[in-house]
Amino acid sequence: MFGLSLVNLGAQSGTGFDISDHVIEEAKELAETSGLPCTFVRTDVYDIDSTPINQYDLLYISIGALTWLPDLHKFFGIASTLLKKDGMLVIYEMHPLLNMLAMEDEPEFEDPLKIAFSYFKSDPWIANTGIDYVGNTDQRQSQQGTNTFLRKKKLTS
């Protein structure tokens, strides 16, 4: 939905890709309400076809997206085909170090800067509260067939 903001700031148009039906539905509603020239496609990013080759000046990857992509080499190969010559790739991400800090509603919380968890935690973290990137849903309304948000503490290449 970041594309809506870019178009609002002056970009000619925007296209968003997401695997979540909820995200696409809400993004389309926001685009219609705002009257901004944006399109949104519900797809697995690995299934983006060759139609939009060399079409985009900017690709934006939002926080947390890379964690869910099992083949980064393939993903960035697809991303590179989407960009025009001299196009820009912008990645907004956080370092996994932040996952070592407990949130205020977690029993491990004592101090906002105190390390509470191992960097090398191997079991999933389960959270049913907090901010979700879909505005009109909560994390229990996932289209992915799960009722929880899972964060793995394992680095993969």
From TrEMBL:
The keyword Transferase applies. The keyword Transferase applies. One of its GO terms (biological process) is methylation. Keywords: Methyltransferase, Transferase. Pfam families: Methyltransf_31. Residues 15-95 form the Methyltransferase domain. GO terms for molecular function: methyltransferase activity. Coiled coil: none annotated. Gene3D superfamilies: Vaccinia Virus protein VP39. This is Methyltransferase domain-containing protein. It comes from Paenibacillus lutrae. The lineage of its organism: Bacteria, Bacillati, Bacillota, Bacilli, Bacillales.
